[in-house]
Amino acid sequence: MAMTSPFRLDDEVALVTGGGTGLGLAIARCMAASGARVVITGRREDVLKRAAEDLGPAADYVVHDVTQSGQAVPLVTAVEQRHGPVTVLVNNAGINLKRPAVETTEEEFLEILRTNVLGAHSLVRAAAPGMTERGRGSILFIASMASLFGIPGVVAYSAAKSGLLGMVRTLATELSPVGVRVNAIAPGWIETAMSRRAMEGDPERERKILGRTPMARFGTPEDIGWAAVYLSSDAARFLTGVTLPVDGGASIGF
Ligand code: NDP
Fold first, then answer.
1. pLDDT > 70 in the chain, percent
2. Which CATH architecture has domain 13-246?
3. Which residues have C-beta within 8 Å of that of residue 46, sequence separation ≥ 6?
């Protein structure tokens, strides 16, 4: 019997936070190439506008700051009025802070949590009820190697990204019985503006990263994009509550 490939996102509407740059933009690009309508968000309109033009006719953008949690429902409502139900949510927006643990202030810590954790949760609150009502949907979180092992100098980021994995497990138990899958990608070291900044003036860190990565290279944003397509597609229809490292082996390397 002839089969059709399930590695597609035709008829899906994907909302990608932080989709104007880096990994979010690559996720949006790969999802659009797989047939999805894609809406990207972020705080900078000029960046989003350029990215949406680059993505082509399947893409749209809305300016949205994930720390403004009261704006999450209006965002989802606006997207659904224009494009139909949001069936794929990618919680990608994130910020990092490189600072020794004992020098990290409570306010700095909270800022990282507000963006990476509470911002993601506000969008789950806004988008998940529609998904559960319709009995299908995919929610993805972009975690980190800092979710999996100790990395010096990123205490707040590690706490935030590790927290996401707990959220994924809990959400999977709450939402998957009615057909909404919840998963995470833990990217290894990928070439983006954020990782370049984290590496700046720290050649030893770069050597260490490549030394423990069996594939001995940094990843490309599209390496994450295609994994996001897979996890959001019917090809992954029995996967929920998992964290997929996409890291060239960094998390198992010695
Ligand atoms: P970028 O800095 O390029 O992307 C971060 C994106 O998030 C930007 O588009 C930014 O847009 C958006 N953003 C930040 N704060 C907010 C906010 N308050 N509200 C809405 N959008 C926001 O970095 P990356 O692409 O590298 O990072 C993307 C995700 O991947 C992050 O969660 C990061 O932690 C994670 N990650 C990255 C890795 C890497 O190697 N690059 C490795 C592991 C994880 P704007 O400023 O316009 O709001």
1. 100
2. 3-Layer(aba) Sandwich (3.40)
3. none
